[in-house]
Amino acid sequence: GMTDVWARYYYIDPASGFEAYPQVYDLLYDGEEIAGIAASIWSSGYKIIAQANDLIAHAEATDAEFFPLEEVDRNTILGEAYAVRGMMHLDLMRVFGASMAVDPEGCYVPYVDTYPSTVNPPIPNRTYMSRVIDDLKQAYGLLKTFDVEANPNYAASTTYRFSPSNVPEQGKFFSMRGTRLNYYAVTVLLARACLWAGETDQALTYAQEIIDLVADKTLKLASSSSISNTPKIFDEVLFGYYNEDLMDTYEPYSNATNSQRLTADDQTFF
């Protein structure tokens, strides 16, 4: 919840039992509680990046013949791993770095692309964002193998993206593409990364690809009826993690008797 509090989406009770939230809300970065959350985000982010790097190294070193569907399998695994690595680095930059408009040559965050890796000094933002975009472009090309070429209708369909009962002919590994970093999700990520990097023409190119797919109804937008039937608006969701513990995770922040409860700050927000 930290980034939402940071964005002032919620009203925070100064007497909240969760002391980090008032500190985040007031931008008191030297507070002990907020430092603990920041350290957790940093270490968790780089742990995911390390796992992606390990997966990339093994998949690239393995012959395609090892995989049941050869290049279709291998490219999908590699594409998702590159996408995870690029996405996590983008989010770490957004949380811990500075925007390109503020400090394009500042060094705030290291870019890690090998496993194992021990010493990684921060690199200039401009170089860092170039590497984010390179990783996402790599994923963009690799994920075309299944999502665009082998089974173009599957990832584009809302029902197929999120229904476990719809298994493509290639097997269960390719089910529920909406809960994985599929081609369309990576296209949107590329638009966001290019926009952050100040490459607005490139950002428009990737965004336009999705806009055109919506215009020709390859991808759907939610209608008023679909919103009432599926409040999660699956038609518009290109990527979302599946979490069996979502309700248990969310409950403490919605329980009216809990001091950690988050209340929408509608006056500020609107």
Can you lay out the helices and strands and say which pair or pack?
Elements: H1 2-6, E1 10-11, H2 20-25, H3 32-61, H4 71-96, E2 107-109, E3 123-124, H5 125-150, H6 158-162, H7 183-196, H8 200-215, H9 224-229, H10 246-254, E4 263-264, H11 266-269
Helix pairs in contact: 3-4, 4-5, 5-7, 7-8
Short description:
With 270 residues, the chain is mostly helical. Helix content is 54%, strand content 3%.
Structural description of this entry:
It is a single chain. The chain is mostly helical and 270 residues long. The protein is built from eleven helices and four strands, in the order H-E-H-H-H-E-E-H-H-H-H-H-H-E-H. The chain has helices at 2-6, 20-25, 32-61, 71-96, 125-150, 158-162, 183-196, 200-215, 224-229, 246-254, 266-269, and strands at residues 10-11, 107-109, 123-124, 263-264. The strands form two sheets. Strands 1-4 form a two-stranded antiparallel sheet. Strands 2-3 form a two-stranded antiparallel sheet. Helix 4 runs antiparallel to helix 5 and helix 5 (125-150) packs antiparallel against helix 7. The longest helix is centred in the first third of the chain and has 30 residues, at 32-61. It is globular and about 60 Å long. The model has no long low-confidence stretch (mean pLDDT 88).
